[in-house]
Design goal:
- With 85 residues, this protein is mainly α.
- It has one domain.
- Helix content is 67%, strand content 0%.
- The longest helix has 23 residues.
- The radius of gyration is 14 Å and the shape is elongated.
Length: 85
């Protein structure tokens, strides 16, 4: 496993973790154990291809959602507009 691949996957999974609202929901969405996800998020290894593809589907769906909002004229939310977690 190449370190750069694991790092890239970790960044993608970190974005997915944010989009899913946490590590446990992301693990459930991806159908994996939390311990496996922990390794991938820490870039100790990269996920299997099927898991990577599922994560990319989540990223692309978010991209499509934002593009549709922008096309509809919905203003972008600022970080300060988000409710506290």
């Amino acid at each position: 496993m190449h370190p750069r691949w694991a790092e890239m996957c970790a960044r993608i999974l970190q974005q997915c973790e944010y989009l899913q609202g946490g590590r446990e929901p992301l693990a459930a969405f991806l159908g994996v154990q939390a311990a496996e996800l922990d390794d991938w998020l820490a870039a100790r290894s990269g996920p299997p291809r099927a898991v990577f593809e599922r994560a990319m589907e989540l990223i692309l769906a978010e991209h499509d959602r934002r593009a549709a909002q922008e096309a509809a004229g919905v203003p972008k939310r600022r970080r300060s507009d988000r409710p506290a977690a």
